[in-house]
Amino acid sequence: MLSRCSPMRFAPDMKLLPPVLVGILAVAMIASRVWFPGVVLFGPPWVNVGLLGIFGGLYITLSAASQFRHAHTNLNPFSDPDVLVTDGWFKISRNPMYLGFALFLTGIAIGTGALVPLILAVLFVVVADRWYIRFEEQAMQRVFGEAYGDYCRAVRRWL
């Protein structure tokens, strides 16, 4: 029987770490707004709302990463996990670090007020969901078996 955490049958060829991708996208979002503003969706006061996403996303990502460090498990999504972390942020989301990254990038997109950065934020969510998270789920299922399946049934992937 397949669980909601059913792994895909592939491994990424490139090992671009998520924080590196987020950094590249953040720079691309700001650069696109400066050099190619294109369609502007909104201005003040919405631009200020973007700060909530930026700081909230950073807080969630960094505090979830801190949970990993305290649990003595690795942060590298391409390595097998050491510990199944299910407390703190991980009671709310199976992927709070990706959720935080998504909020961070969405905050930048809102802050710029432009369409291209918003598209890049959505692109990150798709890549994270279909590439990183699926690959990690495969490793989690392999290492933790039914305990991970139970966790998947109890906690949603994003929220």
List the helices and strands and how they pair.
Layout: H1 18-35, H2 46-70, H3 96-112, H4 115-144, H5 146-154
Helix pairs in contact: 1-3, 1-4, 2-3, 3-4
Give structural attributes.
159 residues, 0% strand
Quick synopsis:
With 159 residues, the protein is mainly alpha-helical. Helices cover 62% and strands 0% of the residues.
Q: Could you please describe the fold and organization of this structure?
A:
- The chain has helices at residues 18-35, 46-70, 96-112, 115-144, 146-154.
- The protein has 5 helices and no strands.
- Residues 8-12 have low confidence and may be disordered.
- It has one domain.
- The chain is an all-alpha fold and 159 residues long.
- Helix content is 62%, strand content 0%.
Mean pLDDT: 91
Which band does the percent of strand residues land in?
Answer: under 5%
Number of strands: 0
Biggest sheet record: none
Which overall shape is indicated by the principal axes computed on the Cα atoms?
A: elongated
The number of domains: 1
- Gyration radius (Cα, Å) is 17 Å
**SSE string:** HHHHH
Count, helices: 5
Ends apart, CA distance between termini: 24 Å
Q: Please give the share of residues in helix.
A: 55-70%
Pairing-aware structural class of the strands and helices? mainly alpha
Stretches with pLDDT under 50, minimum 5 residues: 8-12
